[in-house]
Design brief:
single chain, mainly alpha
């Protein structure tokens, strides 16, 4: 489900950044395996799990978007297109992940070559792997955050349609509003009576 408030959205972003940091650390660890290509295959596998998990946390997976009303879905896809994400609301495939890794390809290629330089090379490869995985993951987190933030802000601007956060507050304040309106009517009646006299 899409976060309804900016506070909830911020909490989801923190959770996703923690997931990214854990996967980036695991990615750095895979560079210690001295077999060519194992680290890149591991990165592809990790991203194929990480990116859908981030989409899901923000309520932006393909399945979640398919279940939305057409107006909301259209609004979200408009925001996705405006930021240029190729991952939000899509099925994450191996080919898509490889395209993403090609964007940070210099780092991946350097990492693969560097790990064969004794000692310092493996350290450099681990650092590059961590940095590349963290970059891809955090970029996706930031894109998802921006889309949901725009949606929350847009909902607040639509006249007659309360923002999700306003709905929660209205439900808890309904009783108070009714009591206030009754008490305000009571105070007006005596004033009207005094004018009539």
């Amino acid at each position: 489900m899409i976060p309804a408030t900016l506070e909830q959205l911020e909490q989801v972003r923190k959770e996703c950044r923690t997931m990214v940091r854990k996967r980036a650390t695991a990615s750095a660890g895979t560079t210690l395996v001295p077999l060519p290509g194992t680290d890149v295959l591991a990165d592809v596998g990790m991203l194929m799990q990480l990116l859908p998990a981030i989409n899901n946390k923000f309520g932006l997976s393909q399945k979640q978007l398919d279940g939305m009303d057409p107006e909301t879905k259209s609004m979200i896809y408009g925001f996705v297109m405006s930021i240029g994400s190729k991952v939000i609301g899509r099925m994450i495939t191996k080919e898509l992940v490889v395209q993403i890794l090609k964007r940070v390809g210099v780092r991946v290629a350097t990492k693969t070559v560097a790990k064969f330089v004794p000692f310092a090379g493996q350290g450099l490869a681990a650092a590059l792997s961590f940095t590349a995985m963290r970059y891809v993951g955090n970029k996706h987190v930031d894109d998802c955050y921006e889309v949901v933030k725009r949606m929350i802000e847009q909902r607040e601007l639509i006249p007659g349609e309360p923002a999700p956060s306003a709905l929660e507050e209205a439900n808890s304040d309904d009783v108070k509003v009714e009591v206030k309106s009754v008490s305000s009517n009571d105070t007006h009646e005596p004033a009207n009576d005094s004018k009539d006299q």
